[in-house]
Amino acid sequence: MSVNLGLAHVSTDFLIAALLIYSLALLAFAGDYAFGRPRRKAAAAPVAEPAAQLAAVGAASAGAGAGTADGAVLDAPAPAVTGGPAGPADGARPERPAGAFRAIKEAGPWVVVAAALSWLGILAHVVAVTTRGFAVHRAPWGDMYEFITALTCVAALFFGYILIKYRAWALGVFVMGAIVIALGLAETLIYTPAGPLVPALQSYWLSIHVTAMTLSSGIFFVATVLSIMYLVTERYRKRVAAGKAEPNPLLDRIPSGSQLDKLTYRAVVFGFPIWTFGVMAGAIWADQAWGRYWGWDPVETWAFITWVIYAAYLHARATGGWRGPRAHYIQLLGFASLLTNIFVIQIFVTGLHSYAGVQ
Questions:
Q1: Alpha helix (H) ranges present in 32-169?
Q2: What is the DSSP string of 284-349?
């Protein structure tokens, strides 16, 4: 079928719109990071109370901190305590945490605007990827440009999920910033006009194998941003504790290392089975296309190396002695391997997958 140029132009327009909206969302997240969170922290600060009342508040805050360490809520004030040391007055139950949308509203106007713009940008991004698929009459990830735009769409969707699930607007500056950079580079450096696929890619397995790799890569993208945040903040906080650096108000507002560590781990746990399925689906597709499941083609081999590294990360993260920075270095090595496969192996190394380079 011939390419529908009208829909292709619509796709490009929506993608540019998504990039602009994401940029505005990034500014709103930056506004909350600079102005909103300090005000919430000041508003949540306890006032002078009797010693017994302060003890109760301290106990409640400790309990809330434990919940936050599990990654349940990244930016939410501790629940109010109305009773004495023995618990809530008159046997009343503690107040339940606010729902996600109510929590966003209560977080202030910066968060409301940032969350609304994020989801508006995600909607435009999804429309852009979808219309690209209709324009070319296939799954819209048949070349490098389409793969990057789809990958960033998955990353934005995944961030939108953790934004609501974990009240993760404190991460918006960093995750949305990375998405804006990646999408901007795709639009400026590797833009590829809509066109037909090379014959080797004209298979229904494209919609299975490459979809799985795109989904998992988008999730790993978010995990990588979180790992970088973890390593930077942990190094900073250790230097401050050792008296080798002065406190930085901006870095102090980043969520704790425990929160980032757990959220990174959960992201990789979610994405790793999808990557595994993608590698298996690729082997089945290779058997149908070339008559063998595995031939040590450079791209196949590097995809397996990436799988091994992420498996090593999960093993290291589950082993007590490898928690912390060392596990995150392994996770970053896994994403570096993934990027090497996309931007080096597929473009510069000759093999059966050489057609996957920039066209």
A1: 37-44, 51-69, 100-106, 109-136, 144-165
A2: HHHHHHHS-S----HHHHHHHHHHHHHHHHHHHHHSGGG-SHHHHHHHHHHHHHHHHIIIIIHHHS
Beta bridge partners of 87: 84
Q: Is 87 helix (H, G, I), strand (E, B) or coil?
A: strand
Q: What is the tens place of the pLDDT at every residue in 266-311?
A: 999 999 999 999 999 988 988 887 788 888 888 889 999 999 999 9
Placement of tokens 């005000």 in the chain = 39
* Count helices and strands in the chain by DSSP H and E runs: 13, 0
Can you tell me which residue has the tokens 């109510």? 102
**According to the per-residue pLDDT averaged within each range, which of 23-27, 75-79, 325-329 is highest?**
23-27
Instruction: Please report, for residues 137, 232, 244, the alpha-carbon distance to residue 26 in angstroms, rounded to integers and kept in the order given.
Output: 33, 20, 31
Give percent of the chain above pLDDT 70. Answer: 78
d(CA 48, CA 65): 21
Q: Which residues lie below 8 Å from residue 66, measured CB to CB, with a gap of 6+? A: none
The model's pTM is 0.82
Helix (H) or strand (E) holding 47: none
pLDDT digits (tens, 9 = 90+) for 227-252: 999 999 999 999 999 888 888 888 88
**Spatial CB neighbours of 34, under 8 Å, sequence gap ≥ 6:** 250
